[in-house]
UniProtKB/TrEMBL annotation:
It comes from Streptomyces fildesensis. One of its GO terms (molecular function) is ATP binding. It comes from the Bacteria. This is ATP-binding protein. Keywords: ATP-binding, Nucleotide-binding. Gene3D superfamilies: P-loop containing nucleotide triphosphate hydrolases (3.40.50.300). The lineage of its organism: Bacteria, Bacillati, Actinomycetota, Actinomycetes, Kitasatosporales.
């Protein structure tokens, strides 16, 4: 199974994924951004705003996850914002074709809290403006995200409680 944590930057995906990996049996984190980093040197001649815009990124995320699960089994927790509906459709169709169930969660936080979290983050300080610039894209994606994912409001919940809510939803 894949537990995909979606939502905008600052909603708590990374921290929640670390918590989930400790409470869901046989869970491991799959950072799909690493696939994008791998492709950068190969596809640098194809300029994009985001590596998700490269079709090979989407196909390789599906293939890599499929290979990992086929090799070690268990659960992959993927903390990755996907804010373009077509890209999510391609990813989820690829997982379905591979026979991999996906539980798609959106970690949602109100905009004031998101802005406060991003501006006070001491870990990803170099990406602060980039993260703030993506708040509008997230708001635009919310209608389709609400149709394709289970939304968890993280505004007043610490990551461990968010992780436990997700674990309760996915575990028998």
């Amino acid at each position: 199974m894949i537990i995909w944590l979606n939502g905008t930057f600052g909603a708590g995906k990374t921290t929640t994924s670390k918590e989930l990996a400790t409470i869901v049996p046989k869970a491991r984190i799959f950072d799909s951004e690493q696939v994008g980093y791998m492709l950068r040197h190969v596809l640098e001649s194809v300029p994009v705003k985001d590596f998700q815009d490269w079709r090979p990124w989407r196909a390789l995320v599906v293939e890599t996850a499929t290979q990992i699960l086929g090799y070690v089994g268990g659960v992959l927790v993927v903390p990755q914002s996907v804010l373009v509906e077509q890209y999510w459709t391609e990813l989820s169709a690829g997982f379905a074709a591979a026979g991999i169930p996906v539980r798609h969660f959106v970690l949602h936080t109100d905009q004031d809290t998101l802005t406060r979290r991003i501006e006070s983050d001491t870990v990803e300080t170099g990406a602060r403006q980039w993260r703030l610039d993506h708040l509008t894209a997230y708001e635009s994606a919310r209608p389709w995200l609400s149709r394709t994912a289970e939304t968890i409001d993280t505004t007043n919940l610490p990551p461990d409680r968010v992780a436990h809510a997700i674990a309760s939803a996915v575990l028998p």
